[in-house]
Amino acid sequence: MLGKKLVTAQKRGETRALCLGLGMVACSMMMYFFIGITIVPFYTKSVWTTETVCKVLKANIRDKVSCPSSKGSEDEETFPYPCLQVWVNLTASGQEVMLYQTEDTLERNPKCSYVPDKLENSKEVKARIETIASNFKKYKTFPCYYDPGGTQTNVILSRLYPSRGLLFAFLWPTLMFTGGCLIIVLVKISQYVSVLSAWQ
Q1: Which locations, inside or outside the cell, does it occupy (predicted)?
Q2: Torsion angle, CA of 183/184/186/189, rounded to 10 degrees?
Q3: Model's pTM, two decimal places?
Q4: Which structural domain, as residue segments, surrounds residue 128?
């Protein structure tokens, strides 16, 4: 009687462990799919892949411009902000090009190097842009990214999805997938050992 209860409990534990392993594998596959349709296309579409050194030539704040608060809608609300333009000397080619914060900045407003998020306090936006401009004038040399193929003549300060960030995004689903497979393998080994012991 006690032996039957132990066998039943063991089978229930193995079933739960097997369900846990399969669930972890399924969740990791969903995470792979989500990363594949969201982050990977942005990473592969970016042409600013090569890192070099940029030297600031001038950083000017021009008159206020209007920028849409959101993308993709026809009735876009716009908010004015000072337009910061940063021109740098590209070490790789020696050209004078315009610097943008990220790939998204160029798409939102190609006239300005920095596009702030919509803030109700216009003074805060102005102060932030002035701080950024002073930092560029203070630290004249810094790493930046350019297009080695020459499709884009401008440069960006940082990539939205760098290689390290992409690897970090794939790290968690990979760990979950490995853990799920390990649980499944251990359950199968346990079942095999149990059958072998009963046969002997």
Answers
A1: Membrane
A2: 170
A3: 0.68
A4: 50-161
